[in-house]
């Protein structure tokens, strides 16, 4: 990770919204911008950004991801930090991009990737490790439980950073999720290739969520929330799903719910 000594306002921060958030859950990247600007960051949204290439790589088409890796470098190389509300996509940039550049046999691209990837952060990492904050001034008076998604937990190793941030939210009733570290069963294309297993895993996760009597299930990846939330919705539990960014962006003056 890159260490910064400059004032927060002097950091040139880019929002990497990720393609699925931009398309399906735009309120999440908007919440990231509101939150970071409230903390004093100058945030830009490079409009040329697109997919990080994870879908191609995960399905065995790493060669098709090479142009996307090149484009990612071109879009984000001039920023001090790149922040994304997705452990999955940040994991792809930091773990898969070097592999893709190596497979492409392009030392120049590999060097460029190594220059960019240490600057790419999942939201909770950026808040806790770079900005050095856990209390972001949020207010969310609801009973909440947290699901640590697999990529953030196992690939990025964000640890308890999201929980540190949630514990500092004013008014929140944060309850532990039983079996929290068990996969929800989404796993991107896994949910399509192994639908029955995926649904069974998601049903187990949903049952644990119901056990907590939480009003809201929160996580750092909307893809996992969509999977679990779909099951909770079909069961008519009344439990909402919200991205971590939306809770942290919530204030008394401007509540997200």
TrEMBL record:
InterPro entries named among the record's database cross-references: Cys_rich_dom
Domain Cysteine-rich: 13-92, 144-228
CC annotations in GO: cytosol
Domain of life where this protein originates: Bacteria
Gene Ontology molecular function, alphabetical: oxidoreductase activity
Name under which the protein is recorded: Fe-S osidoreductase
Organism: Knoellia subterranea KCTC 19937
